Structure to design on (117 residues):
């Protein structure tokens, strides 16, 4: 199976594109601090999904993916507290995209653990 046919990959891609779009509008300070972290983490999610899909050590890769998702959720919350987002709507959409990827990664991990047992 190719990774670009995975629903979680498509969700992560949508998240990554959205993050890239909104970070452009951050003020200069936030663009190069929290904005850079948001961009990096969202891209890493896509890469981790690909690696988990092709890896022999799926459980470890999926666990790392779920941790990375949680880290990104915390970064988005930090961005809200720092007032990096131009509007609450940007924060809300970012959060929804991230939660969607987190749920899918946890479901993938749960499914893998059930199948392996």
């Amino acid at each position: 199976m190719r990774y670009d046919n995975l629903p979680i990959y498509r969700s992560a891609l949508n998240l990554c594109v959205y993050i890239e779009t909104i970070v452009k509008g951050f003020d200069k300070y936030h663009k190069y601090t929290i904005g850079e972290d948001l961009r990096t983490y969202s891209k890493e999610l896509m890469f981790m999904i690909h690696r988990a899909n092709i890896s022999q050590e799926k459980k470890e890769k999926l666990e790392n993916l779920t941790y990375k998702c949680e880290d990104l959720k915390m970064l988005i919350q930090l961005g809200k507290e720092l007032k990096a987002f131009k509007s609450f709507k940007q924060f809300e959409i970012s959060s929804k995209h991230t939660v969607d990827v987190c749920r899918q990664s946890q479901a993938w991990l749960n499914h893998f653990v059930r199948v392996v047992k």
Observations:
- The CA atoms of residues 64 and 82 lie 27 Å apart.
- The two ends are 22 Å apart (CA to CA).
- The helical segments are 7-23, 28-31, 34-54, 58-81, 88-116.
- The chain is about 80% helix and 0% strand.
